[in-house]
């Protein structure tokens, strides 16, 4: 039985692209996990909640899970072979649907821009202080563009290779942090010093928007799924796994850095920079920076790919035609921020609270309601 | 365009001679066999292509001594033709020819052509011969344990080497003639029901579509049929060892044998296949797995070590332990060039030395190693041109390169190395990481005859992982690699063959009684 599925996953014998791109169960799992982990370890999520940040993360994760299970996935389930643009167009009419789809292109591009810029800045701060930012970002965008050029299937396959490597390194780092004297769980005490309110406030909508609500991008990718297991189950389990992973990272950051974690720009990097492997490797942070590379790369490419898919479906052109314009938008867009701090600040102060929830929560919920209403009316007519 | 064979023997022989340009190695002979006075027979062959023993002993001698026709004469043309074919010429493979062109082809293939005066058809007898190398130990892929025979330049010998290892009626050899001028024989070999029929068809289709004047080596075929040209990675495997090829055929791969070269192609291949040596299966599985991991490591060292050295010593010195950093800094102090330039000079020098070592007449070979070791190793360091650490890096890189069993994959890592060095010298570890990511995307998109190049890793296939990074014991490999072989015949051997000592009381039973 397994044989049949493997063959159906790769029906194209003659080349990478013959319009039959399909992804398997493990590939979807790998992408969701990598996408969710992405750049989260760059920041201390929910740092507003101080040492209770991990609780805020947990709350956001559960809220995100609900969003995924009751909003995003049901949308896909009602139209399993359509992507977001097609769903928007068929349920909201040509004009509203097109307009909304267009805003999603901008949203995906902007998300990609943030990742490109974040990693570019990280590189300049930690590894290559004398290298111009434009060169680093150009390499990042070109790499992503190349991955998108190779197609959906290749990108999914890429995540499949990256996942075991990245998880292995992360787990090693976390074990090292735990076993070293850096970590001290008593730094999590006292819990809920100021009550539950600031925790919830930090979680919603901040941490939902980043990273847990970002699953909305999969509305562009789920339609490629062709695995053996049910899609919702795979998505929810992968999501839960990555959520727990983020939670553990969060706890290890707080408990090893204490109050320092909320003031540091890149707390995970700071924590690992105190690590030493028996005098052999003195500084681990270049490795961590490279580890983040893979996560950020996957995230920025997913958004790049989603933007290209959206644009090509919307304008009814070939996918490869849209790579150059979208790539250019992302590259130019990444220069819009004044500095790294400005970028982070805009992100956490405005985007996470006011802008991203529109795309991640509001539109999907509205869309789902309209879909239900239309379906209902159709059934009544019959 | 066909022309009939001229009726008159003399005309026919003259035509052959003039078509072949009165070549001195063409032998045309006319004689009258015993027992007949009226019929004259012509024998034509090309000297270096036939075995003289066969021609003289089995054809000319028997013709001369042909049994008396007795009362059967006078025979007409057809009758005599059949008489020759059935009673006289004692050679295994015989063909009847009806056109002049067929005659020429047969001659050039090493057949001996028999013509009868007054007949419009000719007889071709296979009399293979000519100079050929005997089966020797392969020069490029040596093993300690395992068969020592290697393929030769002779297609027939190579086929027999495979046939002798697989005594199955399902073993197939499909012949093609490729090359308008060279008319090279190319044979596709696979096992029916084990090889994937789709891939067999695809390979045959690609071979048939080749339109070129010459095929001199399997490399020609490789360039015509590979899935993608612009890639540093080979998507076909070439091997000189029959046991490796047979191993591949048994896993469902398809071999392409080309006349005139000992290098046989194997397709479709995946990345991990380039790190398997046939010896892995003859040694104990633990050491085989260990060596295989060493090989993967060496591939990365060969690809990345110089660039890592450049990147860390130029951009990320903080990663090094203090003492190492100080000693490196002390070495680098006296050297005039930046690390990137230094590494480039050394790597290029090594490539020159290596190429010289291959091209040099063997007699002067030892000279080059002395020059290389002394000049590049010691003198350059003493003169303060390069740092000692760089010499160590370059030499270790070079040695690692030789660990990779497949030469074509080793070459790939050599080329990639230079790109990585530039990336490492300009963007440090970030550059190297980007380069690796680029390669990974590229490889994830590569296919070999439709099979994803990184197969058991991506798309992941846990069952196929038994023979990738490690080699599990033979009894545990119950299935053939999926996707490559025919989906209907994935079973390789019966499960549960793990050997174990006999039951305790049963074993000691004999002694106690």
Automatic annotation (TrEMBL), chain B:
Compositionally biased region (Basic and acidic residues): 503-513
Domain of life: Bacteria
Example GO BP: spore germination
Transmembrane segments: 293-312, 363-381, 388-409, 415-441
Family: Belongs to the GerABKA family.
Region (Disordered): 128-147, 483-513
A GO-annotated cellular component: membrane
Listed InterPro entries: Spore_Ger, UPF0353/GerABKA_families
Name of the protein in its database record: Spore germination protein KA
Keyword vocabulary terms for this entry: Membrane, Transmembrane, Transmembrane helix
């Amino acid at each position: 039985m397994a044989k049949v599925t493997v063959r159906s996953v790769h029906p194209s014998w003659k080349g990478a692209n013959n319009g039959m791109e399909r992804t398997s169960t493990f590939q979807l799992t790998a992408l969701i996990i990598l996408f969710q982990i992405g750049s989260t370890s760059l920041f201390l999520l929910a740092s507003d909640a101080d040492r209770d940040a991990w609780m805020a993360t947990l709350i956001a994760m559960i809220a995100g899970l609900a969003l995924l299970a009751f909003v995003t996935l049901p949308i896909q389930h009602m139209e399993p072979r359509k992507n977001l643009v097609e769903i928007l167009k068929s349920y909201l009419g040509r004009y509203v649907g097109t307009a909304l789809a267009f805003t999603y292109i901008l949203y995906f591009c902007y998300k990609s821009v943030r990742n490109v810029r974040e990693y570019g800045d990280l590189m300049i701060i930690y590894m290559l202080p004398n290298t111009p930012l434009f060169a680093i970002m150009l390499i990042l965008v070109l790499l992503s563009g190349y991955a998108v050029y190779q197609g959906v299937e290749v990108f999914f396959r890429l995540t499949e290779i990256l996942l075991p490597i990245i998880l292995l390194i992360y787990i090693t780092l976390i074990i090292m942090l735990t076993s070293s004297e850096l970590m001290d769980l008593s730094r999590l005490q006292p819990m809920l010093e100021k009550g539950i309110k600031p925790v919830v406030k930090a979680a919603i909508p901040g941490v939902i928007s980043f990273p847990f609500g970002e699953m909305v991008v999969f509305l562009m990718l789920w339609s490629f799924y062709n695995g053996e297991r049910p899609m919702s189950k795979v998505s929810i389990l992968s999501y839960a796994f990555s959520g727990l992973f983020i939670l553990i990272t969060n706890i290890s950051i707080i408990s090893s850095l204490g109050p320092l974690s909320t003031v540091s720009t890149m707390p995970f990097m700071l924590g690992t920079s105190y690590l030493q492997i028996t005098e052999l490797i003195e500084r681990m942070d270049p490795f961590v920076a490279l580890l983040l590379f893979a996560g950020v790369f996957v995230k920025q490419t997913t958004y790049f790919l989603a933007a290209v898919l959206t644009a090509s479906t919307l304008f009814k052109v070939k996918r490869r035609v849209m790579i150059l314009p979208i790539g250019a938008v992302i590259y130019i867009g990444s220069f819009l921020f004044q500095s790294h701090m400005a970028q982070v600040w805009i992100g956490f102060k405005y985007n996470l609270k006011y802008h991203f929830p529109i795309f991640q929560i509001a539109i999907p919920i509205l869309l789902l309601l309209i879909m239900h209403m239309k379906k209902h009316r159709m059934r009544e007519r019959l | 365009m066909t022309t009939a064979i001229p009726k008159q023997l003399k005309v026919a022989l003259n035509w052959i001679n003039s078509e072949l340009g009165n070549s001195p190695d063409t032998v045309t002979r006319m004689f009258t066999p015993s027992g007949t006075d009226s019929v004259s027979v012509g024998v034509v062959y090309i000297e270096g292509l036939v075995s003289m023993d066969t021609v003289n002993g089995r054809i000319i001698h028997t013709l001369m001594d042909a049994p008396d026709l007795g009362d059967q004469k006078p025979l007409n043309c057809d009758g005599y033709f059949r008489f020759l074919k059935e009673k006289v010429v004692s050679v295994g493979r015989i063909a009847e020819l009806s056109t002049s062109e067929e005659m020429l082809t047969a001659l050039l293939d090493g057949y001996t052509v028999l013509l009868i005066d007054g007949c419009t058809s000719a007889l071709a007898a296979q009399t293979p011969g000519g100079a050929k190398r005997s089966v020797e130990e392969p020069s490029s892929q040596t093993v300690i344990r395992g068969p020592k025979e290697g393929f030769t330049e002779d297609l027939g010998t190579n086929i027999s080497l495979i046939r002798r290892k697989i005594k199955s009626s399902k073993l197939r050899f499909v012949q093609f003639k490729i090359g308008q001028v060279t008319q090279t024989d190319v044979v596709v070999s696979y096992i029916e029901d084990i090889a994937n029929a789709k891939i067999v068809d695809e390979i045959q289709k690609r071979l048939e579509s080749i339109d070129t004047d010459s095929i001199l080596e399997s490399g020609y075929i490789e360039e015509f049929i590979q899935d993608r040209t612009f890639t540093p990675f080979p998507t076909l495997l070439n091997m000189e060892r029959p046991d490796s090829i047979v191993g591949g055929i048994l896993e469902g791969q398809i071999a392409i044998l080309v006349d005139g070269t000992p290098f046989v192609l194997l397709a479709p291949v995946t990345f991990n296949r380039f790190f398997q040596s046939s010896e892995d299966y003859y040694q104990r599985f633990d050491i085989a797995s260990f060596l295989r991991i060493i090989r993967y490591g060496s591939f990365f060292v060969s690809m990345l070590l110089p660039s890592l050295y450049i990147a860390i010593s130029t951009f990320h010195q903080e990663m090094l332990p203090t003492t190492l950093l100080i000693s490196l800094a002390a070495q680098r102090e006296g050297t005039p060039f930046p690390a990137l330039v230094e590494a480039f000079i050394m790597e290029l020098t090594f490539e020159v030395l290596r190429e010289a070592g291959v091209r040099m007449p063997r007699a002067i070979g030892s000279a080059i190693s002395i020059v290389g070791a002394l000049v590049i190793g010691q003198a350059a360091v003493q003169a303060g041109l390069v740092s000692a650490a760089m010499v160590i890096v370059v030499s270790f890189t070079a040695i690692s390169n030789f660990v990779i069993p497949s030469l074509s994959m080793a070459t790939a890592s050599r080329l990639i190395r230079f790109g990585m060095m530039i990336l490492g010298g300009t963007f440090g570890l970030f550059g190297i990481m980007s380069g690796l990511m680029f390669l990974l995307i590229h490889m994830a998109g590569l296919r070999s005859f439709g099979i994803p190049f990184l197969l058991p890793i991506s798309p992941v296939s846990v069952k196929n992982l038994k023979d990738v990074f490690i080699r599990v014991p033979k009894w545990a490999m119950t299935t053939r690699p999926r996707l490559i072989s025919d989906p209907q015949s994935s079973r390789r051997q019966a499960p549960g063959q793990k050997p174990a000592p006999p039951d305790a009381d049963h074993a000691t039973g004999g002694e106690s009684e």
